[in-house]
Amino acid sequence: MSADHSIDAAEQTALIMVLSKLFAISKSDAETLMAEASAKAKDSVDLFRFTEAVHKRFSEAQKFQLIVGLWAVAYASNGLDKYEEHMIRRISDLLYIPHGEFIRAKLIAREQA
Q1: From CA 1, how far away is CA 85, in angstroms rounded?
Q2: How many domains does the chain have?
Q3: For the whole model, what pTM was predicted?
Q4: Per residue in 32-54, pLDDT tens?
């Protein structure tokens, strides 16, 4: 994940799969979405504007699935990086995900990794 300032091939593949599943879109559309998000993220200094949009538009179940997906991307590489975990925690907090759900999402993703 970009939290550790790099996205390796395994993480990129996992991210495309997560986006495809979460938004019910094709692999090609997921790649386009990822490219657009990366471009916008380069100009951003915080997470709030992104998480605010998600918080307003996603249901609780969708937010939970997003957190599971973020964990899946983090676990896709050779182990979990402390910066990735911190980033997911921050996103979870900004989406008002209870800590118990944050942990449950982590365990689900770890089991599936």
Answers
A1: 10
A2: 1
A3: 0.83
A4: 998 888 888 888 888 898 899 99
